[in-house]
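FYI - complex with S-adenosylmethionine, inputs then prediction.
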Amino acid sequence: MESMNGGPGNTFNMILDQLTFCGRTLTEYLKIFDLDLSQWRGAKILDCPSGASSFVAEAGKFGISAVGCDPLYGKDVKDLIERAKNDTERSLHEINQYPDMYNWLFYPSMTGLRQYRNAAMERFARDYPVGYTQGRYVQGSLPNLPFEDRNFDLVLSSHFLFLYGDQFNYDFHLASVLELFRVCSREVRIYPVQSADAQPYEAMPRLLNDLEHLHISAMIVSVPFEFQRNSNRQLRLFR
Ligand SMILES: C[S@@+](CC[C@H](N)C(=O)[O-])C[C@H]1O[C@@H](n2cnc3c(N)ncnc32)[C@H](O)[C@@H]1O
């Protein structure tokens, strides 16, 4: 029998080992999601997967109640940071091999990019130990999240779903998008809509069609951020 990640049997842990555990800062999230936090003051926002991102750590000062969710949460902060440092260096090394696949506008150089990744990691590391006990960091995996229906006003999901288009099959993508929608009361934003090799997610027309049949409003919209070439669009779902 085939599992939703397209592999035989229990390949979930193997896939989890292969995916990058790293993080971005709130500044990067504002661009990636084309997010104006003044419009979401007082809102509950879910960041899934949150990885070693500092969005949850930083959003409080904008009057946002943010929760991060990731399958690796629950581990000790030292283990998470060791994993994040290793994965970040691996991913920077890969980017450095193919610099022409990227626009060097937001990040002017590899040094600038590394500074953003390290800043996110450091802010996450400072916030996570207390945040985990407060329930601001929650262990959970798509496509089954441990939250009530419509628990969050806005749900953000970056650098996971369509980026790993070949590790997961269509059923996983659809189930995950529906799960992100289930826990949101207003909007879901998913970025990017292309795979790690810069190709558009090929099943997007089918996904949009399936969402339409389920009477879920969805559209692809441009965002003011394009690091990997052509990755300047996101999928938005609305209630
Ligand atoms: C590249 S990070 C993205 C983190 C953050 N959103 C960002 O943009 O910096 C990908 C994350 O996906 C998480 N992940 C792996 N499998 C998952 C699943 N089934 N459901 C949710 N998250 C998963 C990994 O643990 C990792 O933290």
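The chain has a mean pLDDT of 93. The chain is about 35% helix and 15% strand.
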